[in-house]
Design goal:
- This protein has five helices and eight strands, in the order βαβββαβββααβα.
- α1 packs antiparallel against α2 and α3 packs across α4.
- The strands form two sheets. Strands 1, 2, 3, 4, 5 and 8 form a six-stranded antiparallel beta sheet that branches. The protein has a two-stranded antiparallel sheet with strand order 6-7.
- It is α+β, with helices and mostly antiparallel strands.
- The longest helix is centred in the N-terminal third of the chain and has 15 residues.
Length: 167
């Protein structure tokens, strides 16, 4: 069963939407683990700060079924599939890794290429799975995070009292 890692982010009522996404992930994947939550600036557009976390879990769902489940959770959080790419989001669930599988198909690349460019993906993943080896880079997530230019896109920890009991 592959170990899967998913980044979650929201900048529209992020505490509420991330708590809902976390509940739905836990309902769908009971042994899910969560990284700490982080606040960071919007990337690619001017907008409110995002709050992000990474979830990790094992699943026997095929890749296509997993993506469909993640999109259903986004929908429960109010995400419209037709929304512009670089815009505020109620929920964004991005598949980062699906075991050691490498996929390069139209509309789907795994591992997610911007994992190595986005602090809000790589940092929380390093909290959750530092010893995991990136299937293309051949380095651990901890090593990739150590090499990352964190000053260019700082992450601010979000404390549990800021996000409520669902965090």
């Amino acid at each position: 069963m592959p170990e899967v890692y998913v980044a979650a982010g929201s900048n529209i009522e992020p505490e509420r939407h991330l708590a809902l996404a976390a509940r739905e992930l836990r309902r769908s994947f009971p042994l899910v683990r969560f990284s700490p939550w982080y606040r960071n600036r919007a990337v690619g557009f001017e907008g409110d700060d995002f709050i992000n976390f990474v979830a990790g879990f094992s699943t026997d769902l095929p890749l296509e079924a997993l993506i469909a489940r993640l999109q259903a959770i986004e929908g429960l959080c109010g995400r419209a599939r037709t929304a512009p790419r670089w815009a505020p989001r109620t929920m964004d669930l991005d598949l980062l890794l699906y075991g050691e599988r490498v996929v390069d198909a139209p509309g789907l690349r795994v591992p997610r290429p911007d994992l190595l460019k986005r602090a809000y993906m790589l940092g929380p993943l390093a909290d959750l799975a530092p010893g995991l080896t990136h299937p293309i880079e051949g380095l651990t997530i901890a090593e990739l995070w150590r090499r990352f230019d964190r000053a260019a896109h700082p992450l601010v920890p979000v404390h549990a009292d800021e996000v409520g009991p669902e965090a």
